[in-house]
Structures are given as C-alpha cells and as structure tokens.
Design goal:
Elements (H helix, E strand, L loop, with lengths): L1 E9 L4 E9 L19 H15 L5 H8 L4 H23 L8
Antiparallel strand pairs: 1-2
C-alpha cells in the first residue's frame, strides 16, 4: 500500500482541508467510516473500539489486539478501518495543533 496526505489551511475561510490518497489497494473505496454500538456491542464492536483507542493513544499496536481485530475482517476491511482511524486522528491532531475550534452543528 502507498499513500499520501495533503493538508491545507485557509485562514480566511477558516477551513482545514485534508486530502488522503491510498494506492495498491484491492478494489475501490469511495468512503469509509466506523459503525458502532446501535445495539449492545458485540465482540467485533468491542475489538474495533479497542483498536481505534490503541491507535489513538499508543504508538505500537499490541499483537494480541491486532490479531483479535484481524479475525473479524478481511485484509481490505482492515486496511479501510486502519486508514479511517488514522485519518480521523490526523485531522483531530491537526485541528488541536492549529488551535481551530469546531462549531457544533
């Protein structure tokens, strides 16, 4: 897998634009997101949340957690999940570093 990210800040419009591109993936992806917890969380929901939390708070992923998440998803789905969490973390950290406040809808 290859990829790149471009972050641009328009201080006049107060807009942070993030463009993410990945290559060498199987198939096409137009959007990705994480579904969570509409009913009581199942085992895969709990593993996904733990995975996202570990990606956000730790530098390295524990092998046992990676293995737990991998058994629920195909390779493609795992790449999509990882890219989604990483992209969200990047945007959140960029906004924090630039001291940009997001208005509630």
């Amino acid at each position: 897998m290859t990829g790149n990210v471009a972050v641009t800040l328009d201080t006049t419009a107060h807009l942070l634009r993030v463009t993410v591109a990945f290559g060498n993936l199987i198939g096409t992806t137009t959007a990705a997101h994480i579904h969570c917890c509409t009913n009581a969380p199942g085992e895969s929901d709990k593993d996904v949340l733990a995975y996202a939390e570990a990606m956000t708070l730790q530098v390295q992923m524990a092998q046992t957690l990676f293995d737990a998440v991998r058994r629920h998803f195909s390779e493609r789905e795992l790449v999509d999940l990882t890219a989604t969490v990483a992209s969200d973390n990047m945007v959140s950290r960029s906004l924090e570093a630039l001291q940009i406040q997001i208005e509630a809808p």
